[in-house]
Amino acid sequence: MIKGLRRNLNYIGIFFDVLSFIAALILGQYGLNPGKFINFQFLIIVGAYTIILIWAIIKIIQVKEEQNIIEVMAERDCYKNIVIKTSDDATAKIRNKVMEAAKKLQFYSKSNKNDRITVYALLNESFFALDRFSLNPQYNKINNSKIYPFNKGCIAEGYKDGFFYESGEKFPNPINNLTEYVDYTRHKYNYTHSEVKNMSMHSVCYVVVRIHKEDKCLGVIVLESTEKNRFSQQSAKEVLLTLAKKIYPFLNILDIKAQELSRNVVIKN
Asked: Cβ distance 222 to 208 under 8 Å?
């Protein structure tokens, strides 16, 4: 990268030398003294080199961010491998507790397909979906390669405050007015326009609790629906807090194993 930067600087230098020569010829044709424009020429060159330097710094930052993403992905994969290979019992128990909560929240009443409940595990300031349940096959899917930042969406609200609830008339109807829904959601939850538009579920009701004990947070539980005012704040909060307490021990086991294994992860450039 350094060699490429030096080569680009050399090319830019030659370019501005030629440009300065041409400018001097043009000024001479009009009887102007090119010497008077030396300061102007100097400013152009300094400005060009400054732009190149800023570009180089941005590229370095981008490379660093990509490296961080690779590290997070590797650690998440370690977590996933633990879940699949050595923690079937723990994940099965988490699934059972999630199903119990879904029944208490009346997921099965009238075969409601508007609701979803997801357990997100926390690993190094990023979340990934560990378990999910919905009667709607489209909402029930889990993207195993997706990482959820700790500072975006309803996840961020629940992670920060321990509990979060939003429902009612503030949400525009995504079916009748997707544009307003996208604008509201991206400003409210720090998303981009495309992130909101491409969501598999355009929810208008959120209930989020943090899975934690004392100062240790292991994840969040997100209950959501495409139906406004679907869940009562107090009753839904009680169900999710109970679920969080029940699954905390199993998440703690997975977290300890994941942290031990992630110390041995080697990131290959």
From this structure: yes
